[in-house]
Amino acid sequence: MRVVVAGATGLIGSRTPARLRDHGVEVVPVSRGEGVDVSTGQGLDRALHGAEVVVDVTDAPSRRQQAGTAFFTTATGNLLQAAAAANVEHYVALSVVGADRIGSG
Fold this sequence. Notes:
Strand content: 15-25%
Shape: globular
Oligomer: single chain
Largest sheet: 4 strands, parallel
């Protein structure tokens, strides 16, 4: 199984590839450091080629609601569009319990 991890250098994302590899999963880490930018879509088509699953553990660069909403709207849209074009079967997004109450978008 080939799994793309978007946000692979963040707090959660940096741990995710290792855990997946422990289970024999082929992991493609996605981050700006890997030449892939979810905000612009740069490199997503290449990164998602042949993937069965996208795990989205991205984090907004700001806790301000407007900035957070703008980031997630753009990044998630880019990821979903690239995943659809690559015929990715599953999209998993990290969700935090109570996230709707913190006002960060």
